[in-house]
Amino acid sequence: MSAEESDQYLNVGTRLIRRDAAERLTGHTAYTEDIRLPGMLYGVLVQSPVAAGRLRRIDVDRAAALDGVVKVLTAEDVTDRRYGNYVKDQPIFARDRVRFVGEPVALVAATSLAVARRAAGLVEVDIEATTPVVDLREALTSTEVLVHDRDTNVIEDVHISRGDVDAVFHTAHAVVHTEIESHRAHQAYLEPRAVTAAPAPGGFSLIMSTQQPFGVRAQLAELFDLPTGAIEVRVPAIGGGFGGKLHLLFAPQATAMTLATGRPVQIVCSRAEDMATGNPRENSIVRMSSAVDESGRILARRCDVVLDAGAYAMDTPVLTSMAAFYATGPYRIDTLDIRGRAVYTNTCPTGSFRGPSGPQMVYAAEAQIEDIAQQLGLDPAEVRRRNFIGEGDRGPTGELITLRGTTEECMRVVESRLQRWRQADVAPGDHRRRGYGLACAWWSTLGTPSAAAVELHEDGTATLSSGGTEIGTGAISTALPSMVAEELGLRLDRVILKSGGTRDSPYDSGSRGSRTMFATGNATVLAARAVAEQIRNEASRLLEVDPADLVLREGRVEVKGAPETGMTIAEVSASAHLHSGPVVATGRYRAELAPVEGSDLQGARFLRLGEPTFHCHGVEIALDEETGRVDVLNFVAVHDVGRVVNPVGARGQVEGGVVQGIGYALTENLRTNDAGVIVNGNLHDYRLPTIADVPPNIETVFIETNHSHTGPFGAKGLGEPPVILPAAAIGSALRDLLGVQPYHLPLDADRVVLTMAERGSRPAPGSPPSTARPPKPEVGG
Amino acid sequence: MTARMTLRVNGSDHDIAVAPDTLLLDALRYECGLTGAKLGCGTGDCGACTVTVDGEAVNSCLMYVLECEGHSVETVEGVTAGGIGAIVAEEFVKADAVQCGFCSPGIIMSTCALLARTEPGAATDEDIKEALAGNLCRCTGYLPILDAVRRASGAPR
Ligand code: FES
Ligand code: FES
């Protein structure tokens, strides 16, 4: 699919207004909880109060006896099969053992929510508590305290190696070491997780707030041993997900209850349940060493990443590979030794959060750049420039980069803003010190499978059926129909969208990995092009011209160069229906992956990153040295994501992502105490940015000179990148201000005060480079 | 233990049966069938459940419905049907101030309550931020919301 054909689009690249906005704003859009089915029961979970223990007995009698209670389910009543995206380790209800605080032990279903809640409180759970392992370092090395029946808590061990790192480290001018520890952050979508299961002939159906209905269906088919087609997953509006709604959530429990009672069952998490059982961004330890020459060129890198998986694997195994792949940052490093590990702990399972593993890996890679610059006495921007990866270079696994790298162009824009801000006057009376920082990153667009169907009706209007999930970005509701309109030469209002689940449309692999615009978009465009071809063929017959000489524009099929010769698309479509058959086609897409070369990959869940995108963020901060409070005064976000299909929606993705990234950097920190209890699992103590906290201005800039060779209209993905850079940019600004930056996230007031206090003991900027051999960056075992 | 009461919502009276501890949010959603107000937290921290009672923005997840007898409740469905609420909604559409939309009904209600107590064009950014500080939005980053409220505030009413 080439972008070169024409830049004159009717819809693509114009300011598109969200087609579903008005309905959402006026309160008429239905979300999962808004849909109550006749005869529906309310499910309330009974959860483990301890982080580790042996289940001795569960007594449900008192709960079951309560008026209105229909059924109580425990592990006894359900299949012993386990589920999980990559490692099948999670039971529907805890069986024999509990592994984290909040783990489902039983489910009560009653005719009212109040009764179900009361009954859940009456279920007696007798657990013999055992010693949990909550700390990541301890879990990594422990052979005594094991979360599962395995001889180690390490569940994933990925190695990427290219060339002889040791040899380069020995002879290099200098070796620089950086170590970062990061915290947990919750997706904190506004709509708590919700699912309703209902009986259906031969199987069951779900109404579910999920980002990935086809994945849910496939996993449930396996878990409950049913044909995939006997399960329908319907997705009404979703109140945000950010990766937190990719998993089965409580679908297995709701389904088990529906199968047991023959009635619809709804489970809606309270906010506390949501935050205690959800799958936050993992805490992690990243140790990174680079061998450099005098000019700051990075010759080799060793990196060891350890991710806390929590009690069940969920999608952490694949995130471990991602973290390893992102250890180079947007820099060309030809000699690598990268290890990624994931470790079980007796804590809430972690998982995908928009740009998974991104914020901490970008923070580490960028702090490493700044450490290199500091040790060598160089300008960090210059060190970045000397190392940027681009076309013709090899990526982490030796794969050829076929797209022009534009991180430098992105950085140039940011540098010009930083310069302007440095020169601006500070309001009189404001004694806070200013810091200016930037961060660079690359990310990749996931090219996982998608199919779409486009049908052109007799009246010249079209229907797009997409299995894609509208998570709130507008990519499905608005951008995809605009692509169909573009391909068929129709006005946007002539394209009707059918989406929202597994029943009415073919497969799509979900709203994740910044893939919707790209992969679901490609499937959509392929379907639309096949329809356009059918129309051209029919018109060719009617007009007696070569199909190649026909164009579809403004509702008409016209002869190139002679627009007066033509017919309306409606006429052609009606004729096709009579003569050659209905005008309908399916598009299917899966990104091709270039071969990897010269690398040794062990245990990786994939072989290379998808289509790269390039990014730079810049920030001006004000630091109150008394309190350690950091305020973001100005922000600029520059992204190369190929062609921007909808500038309005794209800007929304950037601003929303930046604010999430600032929250991650400064205030959000989901804390687990030594007993494995989440201590701030509510929206009062878990501090999300409010309207009063956001910078007055977030400037969004797109570099649009670098279209994707494979994306629809030259587009690449944008959903995740904006969230992965702000912490690193703020860290860089703190270094600008203090001479050092924190090596622990988040950069909250306590951390900043501590960093200021420690400042004296660190080497001053520009101190002579260390030539000592670094320790091998291994964290324990 | 249910009692009958009359709940005045969006200008119409609803005769409903409620328990003493029924929350205004649940009564609106499940007795009156108005699901615009959302349950985001149930603890007064997110604002998704915001409605107005006699023009004042309240968290309906923290209020018992029985307290509302004799008062006038407005929900997003009511206020956006016309007047300033419709203007507010329109400005939100234009500014792209809605993504997932789960926060939107509450934010519209807080905005309407603010605009009802300020003269056209008089609400400052500080006023807007104060009025909306209790409404979390996880998607938009707030800037388009701020923009939409500014514009709505300036619109003739
Ligand atoms: S639901 Fe009422 S404030 Fe969150
Ligand atoms: S639009 Fe999703 S929370 Fe505001």
Strand and helix layout:
The complex is a heterodimer of chains A (781) and B (157).
Chain A: H1 21-25, E1 41-47, E2 53-59, H2 61-65, E3 69-74, E4 97-98, E5 104-110, H3 113-122, E6 124-129, H4 136-141, E7 154-162, H5 165-171, E8 174-182, E9 194-200, E10 203-208, H6 213-224, E11 231-234, H7 251-261, E12 265-268, H8 271-277, E13 284-292, E14 298-310, H9 316-325, E15 335-344, H10 358-376, H11 380-387, H12 407-423, E16 433-445, E17 450-456, E18 462-466, H13 475-488, E19 495-499, H14 516-543, E20 550-553, E21 556-559, E22 562-568, H15 569-579, E23 583-589, E24 600-602, E25 611-624, E26 629-640, H16 647-666, E27 698-702, H17 721-724, H18 726-738, H19 749-758
Parallel strand pairs in A: 1-12, 10-11, 14-15, 18-19, 26-27
Antiparallel strand pairs in A: 1-5, 2-4, 2-6, 3-5, 7-15, 7-24, 8-13, 9-10, 9-12, 13-14, 16-25, 17-18, 17-23, 20-21, 21-22, 25-26
Helix pairs in contact in A: 10-11, 10-18, 13-14, 14-15, 16-18
Chain B: E1 3-9, E2 12-18, H1 24-31, E3 50-53, E4 56-59, E5 72-74, H2 76-79, H3 83-94, H4 104-116, H5 125-132, H6 143-154
Parallel strand pairs in B: 1-5
Antiparallel strand pairs in B: 1-2, 3-4, 3-5
One FE2/S2 (inorganic) cluster is lined by residues 39-42, 44-49, 59, 61 of chain B.
- Taken in chain order, the helices and strands of chain B follow as EEHEEEHHHHH
Distance between the termini of chain B: 45 Å
Mean pLDDT across residues of chain B: 97
How much of the sequence of chain B is in beta strands? 15-25%
Proportion in β-strands of chain A = 15-25%
Total helices of chain B: the number is 6
Report the uncertain regions of chain B. Answer: none
Summing up helix and strand content along with how strands pair, one would put the structural category of chain B as alpha+beta
Q: How far apart lie the N and C ends of chain A?
A: 48 Å
What level of helicity do the residues of chain B show?
25-40%
Q: Summarize the main sheet of chain B.
A: 5 strands, mixed
Shape of chain B: globular
Q: How many distinct beta strands of chain B?
A: 5
**Order of strands across the biggest sheet of chain A?**
3-5-1-12-9-10-11
Strand order of the largest sheet of chain B: 2-1-5-3-4
What would you report as the Rg of chain B, rounded to the nearest angstrom? 15 Å
What radius of gyration of chain A results from the CA coordinates? Answer: 27 Å
* Number of helices, where a helix is a run of at least 4 consecutive DSSP H or I residues of chain A: 19
The coarse silhouette of chain A is globular
